[in-house]
Amino acid sequence: MNFVRFAVRRLLEMAATLLGASFVVFGAMYLAPGNPASFLLGGRSASPAALAAIDRQYHLNDPFIEQYARWLGNILHGDFGRSIEYRTDVSHLLSSRLPTTLLLVGMALVVVVLLGLALGWAGAVRGGATDSAILVGTTFAIGTPAFVAAILLQGFLAVELGWFPSSGSGSGDGIAAMLWHLTLPAIALALYLVGMLARVTRSAMLEQLTSEHVAVARSRGIPERHVISRHVFRNALGAVLTTAGLIVSSLLVCTVLVETAFSVGGVGQLLELSSTTKDFPVVQAISLIIVALFMTVNLIIDLLLPVVDPRITLGTRATG
After folding, report:
1. Are residues 45 and 110 in the same domain?
2. What's the predicted TM-score (pTM) here?
3. Does the keyword Ribonucleoprotein apply (predicted)?
């Protein structure tokens, strides 16, 4: 029953937050310098009659609240509006590009989880030279922004050595081609987060290694591999899982830079291009989707934490 109440309360909080975010996202258009009609015209001059026609078509003369209510109502019915730059429905633009971005983020997330957990585990358990090498490597990873990693990987592995494609997503050549084209972007996207997750995992496991319940387990003669997996790593997962929200938000934000560097043609690159051309409907739709995804991930994390670590109750987060 507590689970149901907590889930319902969080869903209501998400709805309220999304409503507030939608207001901010829509209102941001009015903070941009210039008249929206000038962006619609692309800098071309127009007669007063033409400007009036644009104002009527896009309801630019309506009160702000009325425009917001109309836009929000359309969003609730799945209508994100029409792109100013591409002259097509925003929903069509997103549906054609979203699979590429989701695949890229998914590949990067796999790299982050597998390498981050493995390096953190090895550093905490093995110690010595292994731990020192991992600390040096993760320091380098954390200090390398995604766009710098993208440039380095693209210049060396793609252009210099020719091992990977330097641009594009390979979306027209099947899933195998897409995986091959997105390998370098996924590594560039994951590098910083691998270092961060490895550091968090290492710290959480080192803390558990010195805890009383681990000493008791060892005194009972439990094999060391079981002590590490069942008593150290499992209890460290609560602290590790709390970083998932930061990992997902970083992936969503950095994909804009990485997709642009590799000309992937996903939602991230679309957001960058639409921001440059002041294509407000596209920017508003993508921004709102990112907020919704981030809140959904955080809800899932809160629901999973008590399952991973029974010491945590619903509504609380592990402190490490």
Report:
1. no
2. 0.81
3. no
